[in-house]
Amino acid sequence: MNILTPNSPTAELQALDAAHHMHPFTHGAALREKGARIITRAEGVWLNDSDGNRILDAMAGLWCVNVGYGREELAEAAARQMRELPFYNTFFQTSHVPAINLAARLAELAPDDLNHVFFANSGSEANDTNLRMVRAYWHVKGQPERTHIIARWNGYHGSGVGSGSMGGMKSIHSQGGLPIPGIHHIDQPHWYLEGGQMTPEEFGLARAQQLEEKILEIGADKVAAFIAEPLQGAGGVIVPPATYWPEIQRIVDKYGILLIADEVITGFGRTGQWFGCQTMDVRPDIMTVAKGLSSGYQPIGASIVSDEVARVIDGVEFNHGYTYSGHPVACAVALENLRLLDEEGIVDRARTHVAPYLKQRFESLADHPLVGEVKIIGLMGSLALTPDKPSRASFAAEAGTAGLITRERCFANNLIMRHVYDRMIISPPLVISHEEIDTLVERARLSLDEAHAELIQRGLMQAIPNC
Ligand SMILES: *Cc1c(COP(=O)(O)O)cnc(C)c1O
User: Gene3D superfamilies of this UniProt entry (predicted)?
Assistant: First the structure.
């Protein structure tokens, strides 16, 4: 077989990709027509593709490359660990140094009494662990009927059977008969789209109170846990109104329900603090982490659980785990990544130096005729596209049409900014410089201008009012 290299012609790479590689969350036939963009190298916040373009990656890969691309230290940590001990399991009363160190370091970094770590290889897997763990927890505590999980529409927790069920993505549920039984969804705190005439504060409270209504509907003694992202990522970087989380905390405390904070995106500096629950001031019993844990250099995820949850689970043999739970190479790389984030002050600088500048520059896009609102917390931001700013209107065209057009303009201008329906989102590496932020915002504005012109020209600026 002919092995291709990063220097092989793009057409050849695309043809072989189309012939054998099935892509996640992708319409295969449409991609085959078009050919995949082939990324070959990366450094800092910059990607190179096989056509020689240099692209500013405002998504940090897939929300994960917090320390930026090209860190030798992480490559070294992987090579060192592979030579010393490439693999051993942690199942049968065995352990190894990288898993020990990483678990201890995570316990140190995580807030309050979140001191115990169960490893997985991804966010989806860690959330499947959480689903099983909270059910096991109540079973051990003598309340086996507490199995129901409450989650949110338009939340994202992964795409496995359990994690995809807890997520509230109808596109995922529509394929394969999800959600599984025992998973319930309440509405999201997305004021811009769903807030109607309410103030954001009233709306935040109303959406949080749906949790209490749902608990009472199911029966308080049957609910195991509520799972949510501190702020929704894949749902479109939705920042909840200030009234939302305090009310959620009040409700889970009142009914003694476990709170799972899915920190897969919001962990490790993304919101300017180590964890999103610190930014949002909530106290979870379990945190899901992945993505920024290794800055994407190795696949690894984890559940970080409270003293109380660990004490109960440790009272039985928990019949769960993955061959690669606590994989030594992934743990060694994650540990080194956490050292960089801490010792180089990357998380602190993200809060004090990068986030304020990014906020100021990104919010300057609010005056664009296509932009209905700009939201940003730390290094996670989003823009609502609208055909009519005052009414927060949606486009009459199928949701996502304007977003896709804008994303394509961004691509053409060598900027990676994603769209979720008609919301544009950014989540750049935490190490992005002020100059690179300027470039990001300039390219975003140019792309918005071009998208606006295209929408007008194609007659796609018709509105459906939201309120
Ligand atoms: C990405 C993501 C996941 C899933 O993680 P994978 O590593 O893709 O399985 C879970 N939760 C949140 C909040 C995510 O953003």
Answer: Aspartate Aminotransferase, domain 1, Type I PLP-dependent aspartate aminotransferase-like (Major domain)
Ligand 1, atom 10, residue with closest C-alpha? 157
Q: Can you tell me the mean pLDDT for 190-216? A: 97
Asked if 37-70+346-464 and 72-343 have one fold, the answer is no
Nearest-angstrom CA–CA distance, 60 and 45: 7
Cβ pair 454, 409 in contact under 8 A: yes
pLDDT in tens, 254-289: 999 999 999 999 999 999 999 999 999 999 999 999
Supply the residue whose CA is at minimum distance from atom 11 of ligand 1: 157
Distance CA 459, CA 53 (A): 32
What atom of ligand 1 comes closest to residue 62's alpha carbon? Answer: 1
**Per-residue pLDDT, 467:** 55
The torsion defined by the Cα of 382, 385, 388 and 393, in degrees rounded to 10, comes to -80
Residue nearest to atom 5 of ligand 1 (CA): 123
Q: Which residues line ligand 1 (CB under 6 A)?
A: 122-124, 127, 156-158, 229, 233-234, 262, 264-265, 290, 301
Q: Which of 122, 263, 303, 418 to mutate to test the pocket of ligand 1 (most atoms within 8 A of CB)?
A: 122
pLDDT tens digits, 372-425: 999 999 999 999 999 999 999 999 999 999 999 999 999 999 999 999 999 999
Report how far ligand 1's centroid is from the alpha carbon of 178 (Å): 17
For the chain, domain boundaries? 37-70+346-464, 72-343
> How far, CA to CA in Å, does 217 sit from each of 59, 211, 248?
39, 10, 16
Q: How far is the CA of 235 from the centre of ligand 1 (A)?
A: 12
CATH of domain 37-70+346-464: 3.90.1150.10
Residue whose tokens read 């410089």: 433
Any bridge partners for residue 303, and if so which? 118, 288
What's the predicted TM-score (pTM) here? 0.97
Decide which of 2.60.130.10, 1.10.287.1260, 1.10.10.10, 3.40.640.10 is the CATH code for 72-343.
3.40.640.10
Q: Which of 387, 359, 364 is nearest to 442 (CA)?
A: 364
